[in-house]
Amino acid sequence: LESAIKYREEDIVNARVLVEQYAADDSDGEINLACLDYKPSLAYSIALCHYQMRDYSQALKFIADIIDRGIKDHPELSIGMVTEGIEVSSVGNTLLLHETALVEACNLKAAIEYNLKNRKTVAFL
């Protein structure tokens, strides 16, 4: 109910925060989150705009959101998992990767780190 009130007040950020607190097995949470309509491609476009304005801190916030959601929503992609000593199969260039904007976000993060002269971070990415 609180999330619906926040949504009605056009407070989308806090509505999303409340919806994300629903239990994992609560179907209402999935439905309400879908209504809030998160689009990774839109988040990437906003990050790219910040990058072009050289506002790297804001761009990195959107990139972090894309990556965090990719990890949370698609564990099958094994994003961010420690794989030392474990054989990991390639996920290939799937439609799912495209829809999550993960590749684009990681490439943009590497470009930002390169521009900031963080060479060690770029090599790690």
- The total of beta strands comes to 0
Largest sheet: none
The secondary-structure class comes to mainly alpha
Domain tally:
2
**Count of DSSP helices?**
8
Distance between the termini: 42 Å
Q: Please state the CA-atom Rg, rounded to the nearest Å.
A: 17 Å
- Indicate the multimeric state: single chain
What form results from the Cα inertia axes?
Answer: globular
Order of helices and strands: HHHHHHHH
What is the strand content? under 5%
Helix content range: 55-70%
Low-confidence stretches: none
Mean pLDDT: 82
Blueprint of the fold:
Layout: H1 2-8, H2 12-20, H3 27-36, H4 40-52, H5 56-73, H6 95-100, H7 102-115, H8 119-124
How would you explain this protein's 3D organization?
Belongs to the TTC30/dfy-1/fleer family. Keywords: Cell projection, Cilium, Cilium biogenesis/degradation, Repeat, TPR repeat. It is found in: Cell projection, Cilium. With 125 residues, the chain is mainly alpha-helical. It has two domains: 1-37, no CATH class; 38-124, no CATH class. 66% of the residues lie in helices and 0% in strands. It contains eight helices and no strands. It has helices at 2-8, 12-20, 27-36, 40-52, 56-73, 95-100, 102-115, 119-124. Helix 2 runs antiparallel to helix 3 (27-36), helix 4 runs parallel beside helix 7 and helix 5 (56-73) runs antiparallel to helix 7. It is globular. The mean pLDDT is 82.
